[in-house]
Every structure is written in C-alpha cells, then in structure tokens.
Amino acid sequence: MNNSTLSRRHFLSGALSGSLVLGAPAIVNARSLSGGALNQGMVPMEHGSMAVTAFKDSSIHSYQSPNLTGCVTTHIIETPERLIVVDGQRSVIYGQEIRRYAESLKKPIDRMIVSHLHPDHWFGAYQFRDVPIYSLKQTQEEIEQLGDYFIDISKPSLGEHVPPEKVIPDTLIDDGSSHTIDGLTLEYSHVTDAESDNMLTIYLPNEKVLIAQDLLYNNCHLFCGHGNFQGWQKNLIALRKNTSFDLVLPGHGDNTGSRQSIDDALIYLEFVENVYAKVNTGDELKAAILERYPSYMAASLVDIQNLFLFPKK
Ligand SMILES: [Zn+2]
Questions:
Q1: Residue 26 C-alpha to ligand 1 middle, in angstroms?
Q2: Residue pLDDT, tens place only, 197-224
Q3: Dist CA 55 CA 78 (whole Å)
Q4: How many angstroms does the Cα of residue 297 sit away from the middle of ligand 1?
Q5: CA dihedral sign of residues 137, 159, 216, 79
Q6: Residue 277 CA, distance from chain mean position
Q7: Is residue 288 in some structural domain?
Q8: CA of residue 87 to ligand 1 center, whole Å
Q9: 100 touches 74 (CB < 8 A)
Q10: Residue 169 lies in a domain
Q11: Distance, CA 118 to ligand 1 centroid (Å)?
C-alpha cells in the first residue's frame, strides 16, 4: 500500500466524529431516517464524506466522493465482528481514505463486493486486494477483458490516482444466492440491461435495506452511456413495486434513497431517451439535460456518458 497523501490527523478527526455520530441515540432506525434526516449523520472527511446509519446489530458507513468526481458511494457494512465493503472508488486517494476509515473501526475486513464493471466502483478493489473480492461472474469477466483499457483511458485525467493494475474479483456470487455473516443476511440479485449490462444488488432483510448501487441515483445525473433506457426503466418499475425495503442506498448521491428517487430516475431516463433521439451532438444533449436538471450533482457523468452515446468516428 502506498503512503497516503492524506493528513493522518485530519483523517482521525473525521473518524472520531464518525464514532460520535454512531454513538448518538438519535440514529437508530432506518425507518425514521428514510424521510430525510440521514444527512445529519454526514461526517466530512478530507476528500469525501461519511454517513453512518446504525441498526440494532449492524451499521452501514456510506462514503461519498465529492461532487466533482461524481458523488460515488462506497458502503461499509459493519457486523458485530467484521466489515464488508461494497464497491471501491475510482481515485486511489479516495480508496486510501476509505481503507483508513475501515481500519479505524478496528474490525477485520472480511471481504469486498463489487457491484458492476464501471471503474468508479471497481478501481478501488486495489486498496482491498488483500481480502477476497466478490462479484457476479459477468462482472468478473468484464473486468478481466476491459480492466486494462479502463486504466489506460483514465490516466490522462487521473494521472497517478489510477490504480497501478487491475484487481479482478476472485470469488463469484450467483443470482438469487445469499450469505449470512454474523447473523446478518445478504441476498444477491443480478440485474441486467440497466445502468450497466450486469449489476448486483444486495438486500439486507434483517435491516430492510436495499443496496441498489447504480440501479439508482439520488439527486445526481444518471449515467446513460449504455443506452439501456428501456431496460433500466423496466428494472426501476420493478424496484418501485418492491415493498421489502425501507431504505435504498444508491450508487451516486446521498444515502437517503427513497421511492421518490425511483420516480425521479424514471422521469430522468424518459427525458434523456427522448432528447437523445432528437439531437445530433453530445453538446446539445448536455445542454438540454443541464437546463432541465440545474441542481443535480455529478454533472461530470454527463460528459463521460456522451463519450459512449456519441462515439467519435
Ligand atoms: Zn457509478
């Protein structure tokens, strides 16, 4: 592990305020938080922020990268005995920040789970390459095939913050399977043709939490680079009918995901699909999106999306 450029003192103060929030009796039940009070648990760190949601027997620590880099989330599930990391970050700096935060919790890191192929979620596997890394078989294959390419095209913008090599998930997760770890059950679903062609969602029945990752965004621009408008909408309509969760954690934006964010995403996708059918350039699409959604975060995702929707000939 490289020596981090993070300030240790600053980091520790962030982690300390995190534990203070965790100890506050107000944050006990996701049911009461899904209405929007969760922001009160946000802990600023040197780069990203950390929100801690405490349940009876577990906690979820939700990291979010800054707006400029897409508000990408990483979730650390803390069971009584260990930690499970869901997704990493694109930049080495954020990955190191999360690793240090995880170590400050003083429990062994049991595993990392990677939700899908996009580099903002798996580059950070590099910081956790010493633990088993789980994913769908399709995601493992996609990273194996495209990982080096993603690292290469990220070098001009990220420079030294790109991981030095790809880390391919080494343990497979099947659709419909589950793990029970320290009494906490994780139920896995393989979602297809949505934000990415293959995605994993994780449902925690004990806590009634759905970790949706990039199936859902919250007040952020959705990455539509795969052009799976219909498939993604179909998946979101199914999600809207799903009444098993009280809290849904998105892959981009605050972890205050709700049924409202599902509706918002459906409207957003329909809008972008319609404009995309009419315009000829990425600039036109971007202008229309920014005009319709001036307050949405993660605008950089629109530029990345347009590279795929309007490939250079
Ligand atoms: Zn993402």
A1: 30
A2: 999 999 999 999 999 999 999 999 999 9
A3: 10
A4: 13
A5: positive
A6: 28
A7: yes
A8: 10
A9: no
A10: yes
A11: 6
Distance CA 43, CA 45 (A): 6
Give the C-alpha separation, 211 to 207, whole Å: 11
- pLDDT tens for 223-235 read 999 999 999 999 9
Provide the CATH number for the domain around residue 289: 3.60.15.10
Residue 195 phi/psi, 5° resolution? -60, -35
SS3 147: helix
Residue where the block lists tokens 């049911």: 31
Instruction: List the domain range (segments joined by +) for residue 42.
Output: 8-309
C-alpha separations of 202 from 29, 149, 151, 244, 300 in Å? 19, 28, 27, 12, 27
Rounded distance from Cα 230 to ligand 1 centre (Å): 19
Query: What does the pLDDT look like over 46-60, one tens digit per residue?
Result: 999 999 998 988 999
Cα of 222 from ligand 1 centre, angstroms: 9
Q: How far is CA 313 from the centre of its chain?
A: 32
CA distance 312 to 143: 23
Residue 2 lies in a domain: no
Q: Measured in angstroms, how far is the CA atom of residue 146 from the centroid of ligand 1?
A: 16
**Ligand 1 geometric centre to CA of 7 (Å):** 27
* Domains held by the chain: number: 1
Domain annotation covers residue 37:
yes
State in Å: Cα 23 to ligand 1 middle: 30
Distance from Cα 11 to the centre of ligand 1, integer Å: 25
DSSP string, 15-69: HHHHHHHHH-TT---HHHHTTTGGGGGEEE-SSSEEEEEE-SS-EEEEEE--GGG
pLDDT over 70 at 37, yes or no:
no
